[in-house]
Design brief:
Layout lengths: L6 E7 L6 H9 L7 E6 L6 H7 L3 E4 L9 H9 L5 E5 L4 E2 L4 H6 L7 E9 L6 H10 L5 E3 L4 H4 L10 E5 H6 L11 H11 L3 E11 L6 H17 L1 H7 L2 H19 L4 H19 L6 H7 L3 H5 L4
Parallel strand pairs: 1-2, 1-4, 2-3, 6-9
Antiparallel strand pairs: 4-8, 5-9, 6-8, 7-9
Length: about 300
């Protein structure tokens, strides 16, 4: 990477609490020189804003109800308009090695690369179900993807995660930046647009961060309901890249094989979670037939429904 490349880093923040110290410590140990650090704080109730300011971040405060997965990152891109590369993290993504950010931005040496996402590792104390989800979606092998990979990969070609990612600002601008309204999966939407525009997407497996979740059954239902809502709002994705259900079947088979080796006692729970996720997703796909109050109750993103008539 040329030494004169301007790099901004942004993280959305809400009551970071115990997550902030390990996040900020790992960030302070990075070898990459970042020109600007920005935190967009959704009116936290705790000391998050002060912790990030003390760590050298500019803190931009927004109303909590105005947070939107697409709109808030669109705001980040507009606030960092002077940057060549925008790095995005979430407050619970702990960089695993001092060169994690350096590894993340290295692929931009290729002028065809529009966006890069890194490898997300399961947390050290993660259980087998939580760990498998990361190992399935974030393998040890790096890969570049372009529109020509769509027939073979289907919807997986547009897979991306803003929990640990970076964008070339000119490419992001070319496709209209992040959507102003998006319940979840704004990263998938932008990646699909970049692929259709002829850009290359890179999975940088050598760039690593610890980031995983242990969702309850209720949370899994809500999360997949929101994914279904996203697909109902963006039907062109399934038309252009294929249906998400096919990738889901591959995940289930992989999970059962993994659990059979590592934790067979968890197989009944994993199957229950699969059923819950499937019905959550299918209900999200047909959300337009549900009353607004019920959509809000079924969703993990409550504020989206309170500020939207979708």
């Amino acid at each position: 990477m040329p030494s004169n490349v301007n790099i901004s880093l942004c993280v959305p923040v809400l009551n970071a609490g115990v997550a902030a110290p390990p996040f900020l410590k790992a960030l302070s140990e990075q070898t990459l020189v970042v020109d600007r650090f920005l935190a967009i704080d959704s009116s936290s109730d705790d000391e998050s804003a002060g912790l990030f300011r003390h760590a050298g971040f500019e803190v931009f405060t927004i109303c909590r109800e105005s947070f939107d997965h697409g709109g808030t990152r669109r705001l980040a891109a507009s606030l960092c308009a002077e940057a060549d590369i925008l790095v995005l993290l979430t407050q619970d993504s702990v960089l695993a090695e001092p060169d994690a950010l350096q590894r993340l931005v290295e692929p931009f040496a290729d002028p065809q690369v529009a966006a890069v996402y890194g490898r997300q590792l399961p947390r050290p104390f993660a259980g087998a179900i939580e760990a498998h989800a990361r190992l399935f979606n974030y393998p040890a092998q790096a890969r570049s993807r372009s529109a020509t990979d769509t027939p073979a990969m289907g919807i997986k070609a547009a897979f991306f995660s803003n929990s640990f990612a970076a964008y070339r600002m000119t490419a992001l601008s070319e496709v209209g930046s992040f959507p102003p309204r998006c319940i979840v999966s704004e990263d998938t939407l932008v990646t699909a647009c970049l692929l259709k525009a002829g850009w290359t997407i890179v999975y940088a497996a050598a760039a690593k961060a610890y980031h995983s979740h242990n969702y309850s059954l209720g949370q899994e239902f809500q999360r997949y309901f929101d994914i279904g809502v996203f697909h109902s709002h963006e039907p062109w994705l399934r038309q252009a890249f294929g249906r998400a259900e096919g990738e889901g079947r591959k995940f289930v088979v992989s999970e059962l094989k993994y659990l059979w080796r590592k934790a067979p006692a968890l197989i009944p729970l994993a199957l229950t979670r699969t059923i819950v996720k499937y019905f959550g997703y299918r209900l999200g796909v047909v959300q337009q037939w549900l009353p607004q109050s019920l959509r809000c109750r079924l969703s993990m993103q409550k504020s989206y429904w309170r500020t939207s008539q979708s």
